[in-house]
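Weekly modeling sync, notes
Attendees: S.R. (lead), two postdocs, one rotation student

Agenda item 3: backlog of single-chain predictions. S.R. asked that every request posted to the team notebook include the full sequence so nobody has to chase files. The rotation student volunteered to paste the first one in as an example of the format we agreed on. Action items at the bottom.

Example entry:
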Amino acid sequence: MKMMRFGLLLLLVLEMVAYPTIAAEQPSDSEIIARIAPNYNRQDIPKGKVTIFVQLYIKDVMKIDIDANTWDVEFIIRQQWEDSRLQYSIADTREYITASTLGDFATIWVPDTFITNSRAETAVPMERANKLLRIFPYGKIMYSSRYRMTLACPMSLSKFPFDEHNCSIRIGSYAHTVDRIDYSWVVYKSKTPVIVADNALHAGMNLVNVFSHETTAHVGTGDYKSIVGTLLLQRNPYSYKVSLFVPNILLGVLLGLSFLVSHRAPHARMLLLAVLVSLVIGQNYLALRNVPILPYRTCLDCWSYSMAAFCVLAVIGFAISTSVAQFKDCDMEEKLGSPRKMWKDPGTKTDLIFGSLYLVSFIIFQIAFWAMTLA
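Predicted structure, as returned to the notebook:
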């Protein structure tokens, strides 16, 4: 009995002494990666068809260039696939191992993913801090990388400044056809495979919707699979409403009311018209100089040309009513004997006709313009 107790005590002591040694000898992640597959070659693609599951996180939309039809965006691509050559087992509680050094990244195969609509790429500082690769025991790989790029975004400015644009990020394999590498969107905790940060947009655009789809390009060397994440962006027209549209509407109404100024005060009326026309033309000039030269007309062009036409109409009405008043003898009080019949004055009649024509045309234009732009 004493010998049994002594033996149990000895085993307990040995276990207590050996445990720290075992814990101290737990291999690091880099050591496990080096031991997983001695004959592993990162140049060889995993056997069979490899499906890459992708999630896209758009971190920042830095600039939208309507002249070059591009947008500058910073984003993170999370890719997931399985490589049976990297299966392993360890006697601890780690759920995965992490490739934390450049040497680890250099030993593991990753897909040749590239952005097909890229125009230019800006280097992101601290390269090691912008890549993450995790290997799970059953061979699943999770790879995350950060990019900062200038991407193509074809734009139509025909409804400027109420325009909308579909700006996309197209992801695919550079060298492998769809029978070797297949890309597919995946949803983790979010409800969409394309996630946009709350404060990502600060380039004068509002985010209307987010779309994702898959497409296959058929070219001479084979069929290549791509996945596309698209942001529907709408320009915020608030600054144009405040600085152009509302002031122009008020000035247009004042131009119509200028016909109520008596033609017997041509100098005062001419001064009023000169001030109003100058303000309208100046506001539209300042708005148009920020728009690039395009081979087609925009809503802003239609607005500016129409306001210029209303200015011309007001000036023509002033010139005709003044000429009529000077040509006729307009002292109706002496001829007709009553101020109540002043409306028969040819100059006053001309003002009423042109004023009514102007205001009706202006109202019709406003209804048609806003119905077309807001439809």
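Discussion: group reviewed the output briefly. Residues 15-24, 336-340 have pLDDT under 50 and may be disordered.
Action items: rotation student to repeat for the remaining queue; S.R. to check formatting next week.
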